[in-house]
Specification:
By secondary structure, this protein is α/β, with parallel strands linked by helices. The protein is built from 14 helices and 19 strands. It has two domains: 152 residues, Alpha-Beta Complex (Aspartate Aminotransferase, domain 1), CATH 3.90.1150.10; 251 residues, 3-Layer(aba) Sandwich (Aspartate Aminotransferase, domain 2).
């Protein structure tokens, strides 16, 4: 136990009673109720202030209440909210052209990059699964995939909670209570070249890979692993699909981490930071994969909505106009260096890229550390029992991060003693 307890104020307690009475318990009861935010700071309904080091799980990329995003949303809402995809509108076309330009700035796709829009990361991965099925059928010259149905994923991967994306999620504790799911998914250890190669054959339709495993603990794929996966996918006429839902849109200091490593996938799943807080997902298909879907193959009512597309355009503008990619690299490295410089015995390593970072601890006390951090005014999460995830808005400053670094030793001292759990020496 820690020696500091977080006690919600009276307004928070009242709102949480109402939460428990009306909201499904999929997330349990939250510790606070946030009322407003600005840049990297949020305030709860009792007026308590917090430095947001999680940004809605890597979503509020350009900060809370970003003026450019707010204006774009307000202007679009007052002009056109929805059309369905039976009709076109300017914002989706403009956003697609922007994403196409970003992708093709890294990779030669023969000027053939196209986007399917949806509501989030899981549905972006669902579209990617269907692209893999269409490609398999094309390879085999059949109307359906025939025998080419295997999907390769990795242990500890997280690809979403819809039935298809959950099948790809390499976490049995999240998946097994909902069996049966899709057949034919094979899980291999992340960064294990031998296992990946052994799993491949002509029946594989796609390799799904997070260039950095977010929910798995912020585990970074080696360049060799990414390159080998691309080589094997090509060899077996399978799609190489990069899930960049968490790593994309500047989170690592690059638009897309896999592309920055010189590896060109067939499909990129994108979401989270793309909308800056508005719900949007995108399956970005490159090269030949861009032409796999035909009319009627896939659809969604809200995908590419004018309002979410306008928000995403404002996010891209802000990242470009304010040189945020360079800031992410600089500030992210600064933070890692400062945490390591603490020399605290409970810290094993600090890993990640840009502003997607994990602080690995000697003992499974990450959840306790996060609770104590909340009491001190910092929002984080325990991405694994031994790892604290830090994924703040991309506009966070070194001075703001310093305030957390300053209290981190005290937090770790209270939840551990020389690396051992309190009470378990």
């Amino acid at each position: 136990m820690t020696d500091e307890t977080f006690n919600p104020g009276p307004n928070t307690a009242s709102w949480l009673d109402r939460w428990d009475d009306s909201v499904m318990t999929t997330y349990g009861t939250p510790p606070i109720v946030i009322e407003r935010g600005e840049k990297s700071t949020v305030w709860d309904v009792d007026g308590n202030e917090y430095l947001d080091l999680l940004s809605g799980i890597a979503v509020t990329s350009v900060g809370h209440a970003n003026p450019a995003v707010a204006k774009a949303v307000a202007d679009q809402v007052s002009t056109l909210i929805h059309t369905s995809n039976l009709y076109g509108h300017k914002r989706t076309i403009e956003l697609s052209e922007r994403l196409k330009g970003i992708v093709e700035s890294y990779a030669n796709t023969g000027n053939n990059t196209k986007v399917f829009y949806c509501q989030g990361g899981a549905t972006a991965n669902e579209a990617a699964i269907k692209l893999a099925r269409r490609n398999a059928a094309k390879v085999q010259g059949t109307e359906t995939a025939g025998t080419k149905v295997k999907l390769i994923s990795t242990n500890k991967a997280f690809h979403g909670r819809t039935s298809g994306s959950l099948t790809l999620t390499g976490k049995p504790e999240k998946r097994d209570q909902f069996l049966p799911l899709l057949d034919g998914v094979v899980y291999v250890d992340f960064n294990d070249l031998e296992q990946l190669e052994a799993a491949m054959d002509d029946d594989v339709a796609a390799i799904f890979l997070e260039p950095i495993q977010g929910e798995g603990g912020v585990n970074v794929a080696t360049d060799e692993y990414l390159a080998k996966a691309r080589e094997l996918a090509t060899k077996y006429n399978a799609l190489m699909i990069h899930d960049e839902v968490q790593t994309g849109i500047g989170r690592t200091g690059e638009w897309y981490y896999g592309l920055s490593r010189g590896v060109v996938p067939d499909v990129i799943s994108s979401a989270k930071g793309l909308g800056g807080g508005m719900p949007i997902g995108a399956s970005i298909a490159l090269g030949n994969a861009a032409d796999l879907f035909e009319p009627g193959d896939h659809a969604t009512t809200y995908g590419g909505n004018p309002v979410t597309s306008a928000a995403a355009l404002a996010v891209l503008d802000t990242i470009e106009n304010e040189a945020i990619l360079d800031n992410v690299k600089t500030v992210g490295q600064y933070f890692k260096d400062e945490v390591l410089a603490l020399g605290h015995p409970a810290i094993v390593e600090v890993r990640g890229a840009g502003l997607l970072i994990a602080i690995e601890l000697t003992e499974p006390v990450a959840a306790e550390a996060v609770k104590l951090a909340l009491a001190k005014g910092f929002l984080l999460n325990a991405v694994t029992p031994t790892a604290i995830r830090v994924a703040p808005p991309l506009v966070i400053t070194p001075d703001e991060l310093d305030t957390f670094v300053a209290v981190l030793p005290d937090i770790l001292d209270q939840v551990t003693t020389n690396g051992d759990l309190l009470g378990n020496e």
